[in-house]
Every structure is written in C-alpha cells, then in structure tokens.
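Structure record:
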Amino acid sequence: MSINRRMDILKKAFTTSDGYVHVIDEVHVDNKDDPPPQLVLSNYDIFNVRQKALYLSMFYDYCESEIPKKTLMDCCELTSRAMSQQGWPSRNKYTIYRWHKSFIQNELFPNPLTERSKKDILPSFLQNEDVAKAIRLFCRSNLAELSAELLQEYVNRKILPLLVHPPLDFEDATAQPPPAVSDEEKKEELGKYGLTSLSISTIYRWMRALGFKYEARKKYYFVDGHEKEGTIKYRTEYVREMNV
C-alpha cells in the first residue's frame, strides 16, 4: 500500500465518525443482530485508536517529505515533537515506531479487546476499589491543577506505600503521612500489576479509564496557580510529610 493511501485511511480514522472501525483488526459484524462495533468498544478504546491514527498520519507525512534525508526513527522524533507542541499527550519516538511496525503488517491496529484480554490475568490498580476511590477523590480535589504528572507524584508518594504496607482503613490512611518504603519495594509492588515503572502514559490511561477527559490548553493563555488555596494546602502537606 502506498504512503498516500495509508495516510488517507488513517485520516478517515480520526476525522470521520466510524472511520476507526476500518483500521482495527477483527472488528466486524457477522450477524445483523450483533451490536455495531462502536457499542462494543469503549470511548476510551476509540480515543486510543484515533490517537494512534493521528500520530501515524503525521509520521507518514514526514516520511514522504523527509526520507531519504532522514531515517524512520528521525521521522518518529519529528512526529513526537510536533504532536507535543500541539498539546497532545507525549509519545516518544520508540512508541510511535512500535505503532508503525504493528500497523504496516496488515494496515490494521490490534483489537483493543483482544489486547486487553491478554492482560486480564494481571491485577490492575483500578480493580482495587480503595485505590480507584483514592485516585478519583484526589483528581476531583485538584481539578484546577490536575495533570498526569501531579497524579503520578501522588500515586508514587501516597498510594504505592499503602499497597506495600496495607492499612486497616485505606481511606483514613490516605489522609495521614505514608509509611516509609524503599524504591525497590515500590518497584516490586508495581511488578505485581505487570508494570516496570509508573510512566506518564500509564497514569494518563488510568485517568481516562476513571472518566477524566484530556483537553489541550489554549495557546497564549497561561494561569499561575502557585498561590491558589488548594495548591498551598497540598504543598504544605507534602513538605510536612517529607520532613517527618
């Protein structure tokens, strides 16, 4: 398939209402009584497929204009920078290259349902009701400054230690200074959930799964939230805990 045709298919995936269906492996309706694919896949799944299509569309655009002056990995790097500048979630060049290698096998993305079924044997942070409740409460309490980075720091500082040393009352424990744990203990705990690290992309997926939407910040508008009441309270609590 030519790059131009590949780009057309990918653009339809993120610009039309049902274009994503045509770039997902094994998504079809065998029986007229079966629900249409958009009812089988969650909004989160559809968002991820469209996001991949958007990134790869730009990637192939760079390939067409820059190769052979630049390599495939160079084009991945250019794509990563351009998408980040437009306010999209950060995706490194290796992730984009992995998406490309997967897509060119048959011009389809893996079915999210099939991918997820392979991971269902692993426990999930969000299957722990106490953890999901604590993360959701933290996000709602910090909406004005909420970011994947802020939640990443909270999970690493507060949630992981409580998983290493489970308290009798998880909700009460989140309001107290966390128990002291080593980085090795945190890494071991992450391993129980099939994770090697607490990456921003993982945190972002958790936020989406819990119903928090990503919205790109508008250009030329900046908000200084350093002295907001909620920020001061959170900063004071963090400093106090670090000095314990």
User: Anything to note?
Assistant: The two ends are 61 Å apart (CA to CA). Residues 112 and 121 are 15 Å apart (CA to CA). Confidence is low (pLDDT under 50) at residues 28-32, 35-39, 217-224. Residues 125-242 form one domain.
